Amino acid sequence: MNPFILTSYHSPEHFCDRENETERLLSAINNNRNVALISKRRMGKTGLLMHLERQLAMQKEQQFVYFDVLSASSLQDFVNLFANALFKSNNRNFEKLFKSFSKIFSAFKPSFSINPITGETKFNLDISNISESESSLTAIFNYIQKINKKFVIAIDEFQQITSFSENNTEALLRSHIQHINNAVFIFSGSSRKILGEMFSDKNRAFYMSSEIMYLDKIDRNSYSEFILKHFTKGNFKISENSTYFLLDLVKTHTYYVQLLCNRLYSQKKKEITEIVIAEVLSKILEENKFYFESYRKILTNFQWKVVQSIAFEGEVAEPTSKDFIEKHHLGSSSSVSTAFKSLEEKEIISFENSKYVLQDLLFSFWLSSK
Ligand SMILES: Nc1ncnc2c1ncn2[C@@H]1O[C@H](COP(=O)(O)OP(=O)(O)OP(=O)(O)O)[C@@H](O)[C@H]1O
Ligand SMILES: [Mg+2]
User: Fold this and answer.
1) Overall number of domains in the chain
2) Does the residue 9 lie in any domain?
3) Residues 201, 262: one domain?
4) Mutate to test the pocket of ligand 1, among 254, 259, 360, 361 (most ligand atoms within 8 A of CB)
5) CATH number at residue 323
6) pLDDT at 347
């Protein structure tokens, strides 16, 4: 089996480090502090949550409920995802559980379906209007409150709730969360801008409700050791220096490190030199060119030009500076700042360490290599 996993989580053996981060989450849970877990895309939030679930499962004291709300566009969708996750997190006898859930949610015609393609089971509530969405959410919180157990509820891609059709979701959720005393929440997401504002703006419902935890890169030395260990186990030859070369090449950004290692592991050459690493990276860029080109469709011509300029520079500290604008012939500073704002909202670029960078590292490499 290829030890470099590209889907969210496999086992502690295939998960690198994150010891401090896991400790920090466990301490927040044990001390009843909610956490807002924020990082760049593909840095490892979901993986960390799955790893946390493993650790909690060993303790057997808490019930871990995880759901991802990226696909939700209304409170109704949110409630359904929540109810489904709650149902699945329970390892009681299926029939008994279904009966008890049917009773609690009897007003919302609960049903159970099996996806014929994936075989995945799904618990579903029939909610038809806003007031039903709100009362079913109340039913969920009442259910949790009544159970004599501590719950850890992780809501992934939490920024999504700001785009729901109802505009009171934040306040509604906050009031439920404030009143429940046997659940700790982890709100996870990648939009530093949206989530940062949600949790640190005085006028927002979630202000000061959670400890903010920014998930950074994995420690370089731990990652180097991890890479060395797995390649050696698979009878590959790689030097410590080459592992650092690989890490630097993709800026120790978790997903890209995993992708590169996964591909190196699946090729025939057993000796992994810096040349082999660079070759595999350029192969990946070549294979993804249609995907990169598809960015063009979601950007205006001007935004595309701005994105190319950012890729050329690698990072941009002052987008409206004369130097940057003149060097790339971008015209007026107001249109440049509008483009940056919109690219940030679309999560194409992000602002970190006082600089703008493209979120998708491979896209950035591809653009700058043209
Ligand atoms: N500590 C780790 N060790 C090894 N691989 C990891 C680790 N953390 C995450 N990964 C891998 O890196 C990739 C990206 O991680 P993950 O999906 O958790 O990121 P994310 O921050 O949730 O991304 P997104 O913002 O896109 O949801 C996945 O393929 C995952 O398997
Ligand atoms: Mg994720």
Assistant:
1) 3
2) no
3) no
4) 254
5) 1.10.10.10
6) 85
Q: What spacing in Å lies between the alpha carbon of 266 and ligand 2's midpoint?
A: 25
What is the tens place of the pLDDT at every residue in 142-182?
A: 999 999 999 999 999 999 999 998 888 999 999 999 999 99
11 inside domain: no
**Residue 143 and residue 75 in one domain:** yes
Tell me, yes or no, whether 42 and 138 share the same domain: yes
* Number of the ligand 1 atom closest to the C-alpha atom of 51: 1
* pLDDT at res. 50: 96
233 Cβ contact list (under 8 Å, min separation 6): 3
Give tens-digit pLDDT for 208-249. 889 999 999 999 999 999 999 999 999 999 999 999 999 999
Using the mean position of ligand 2's atoms as its centre, give its distance from the Cα of residue 298 in Å.
Answer: 22
Q: How confident is the model at residue 103 (pLDDT cuts 50, 70, 90)?
A: confident
Give the pLDDT of residue 106. Answer: 82
**Pairing state between β 237-238 and 349-352:** unpaired
Assigned domain for 3 exists? no
Segment 349-367 mean pLDDT: 92
Report the separation in Å between the CA atom of 43 and the middle of ligand 2, taken as the mean of its atom positions.
Answer: 8
- Asked whether residue 94 carries a pLDDT value surpassing 80, the answer given is no
Q: Are residues 204 and 134 in the same domain?
A: yes
For 354, the domain range is: 292-369
Nearest to 4 by CA among 229, 159, 230, 160: 230
Write down the pLDDT at residue 85: 93
In this structure, the answer to whether residues 277 and 141 fall within a common structural domain is no
Q: Identify the pLDDT of residue 218.
A: 98
Could you tell me the CA-to-CA distances from 42 to 15, 45, 191, 224, 242 in Å, in that order?
14, 7, 12, 19, 23
- The pLDDT value recorded for residue 175 is 93
List the CATH number of the domain containing 237. Answer: 1.10.8
Cα–Cα distance measured from residue 225 to residue 269, given in angstroms and rounded to the nearest whole number: 21
Q: Which of 214, 248, 278 is the last residue in one of the domains?
A: 214
